Amino acid sequence: MPQAATLNSVLGPITPDQLGFTLMHEHVLVAASGLYQSYPDLLGVGPEARAIASLKRAKAAGIDSILDATTFDLGRHAPLLRAVSQASGVNIINVTGWWLDVPRFMRGVGPNQMAREFIRDITEGFRGTDIRAGLLKCAADIDGVTPPLETMARAVARAHRETGIPIMVHSHPGTQLARRQIEIFREEGVDLTRVKIDHSNDTTDLEYLQWILDQGCWLGLDRYPGRLVSPRQRTNTLKALIDLGHAGRLCPSHDCICIHLHNERPDGSIPEQHDYYRGNPDQYLYIHRQVLPQLREMGVREADITTMFVDNPRNFLAAR
To answer: Does 320 score more than 80 pLDDT?
Structure first.
């Protein structure tokens, strides 16, 4: 399959070989749209410096690149991503598209309108910057593919067809939601080998995961340590998929959130760390510290680890 000459990172074009060890679903910042610019104190003390320090630790441990899955409605602030990437040395590829929060006043927007906006993010840059998106994202969750989210999914599909940029999909495996999302992509003429169904390790249902792979899609096993399924069960599922011969289409990651709201406690105090940090103090290093040693103990070959974290991100992002 031919490879793209360059990929869009927040610092500009990079070659696929520059990706190195890559985590394919992470977040530097998650907040309401515009909150970082308007109410930054809600995000704790020195959020940019904390993000830089966290990614410097990741870089020192051998993590070269992350895919930042933060869309407009999740609070994307492209200049922050550029500053953090520049200071940490970690390549960051950011997405365009939409998550779950479609505001009331946008309910009449059509898929062609949104597709044009997403295409501009890819070809020209996020408004007011020259920072271009390197991936498309759409989402649905436990409520299913609601009409506004279907609009966004079809818009992402049409932007994909125009640009060739691949798609990552926030999905809900507990309801096997990818079946409907993939149906929409088929209707829109999407190349399913350019689609990654994320949060797939929120289930241990190997039959369902095998069905997704059989459609040609990739699996984002990107919730570590996660909540709905124990970390060890997630690793057992990952090992089972490797044993079934699927290492070449698996993308493990964390869905880590580095910067988030520091919510006031009942006594009026503000915690030093946000809730998501307390759930994963290892942040971008949990897989390095916990999962990779377990996989090695379970007999997974170094070649398969390299496949999942080096070859797969390059092949998924760069194929044309």
So the answer is: no
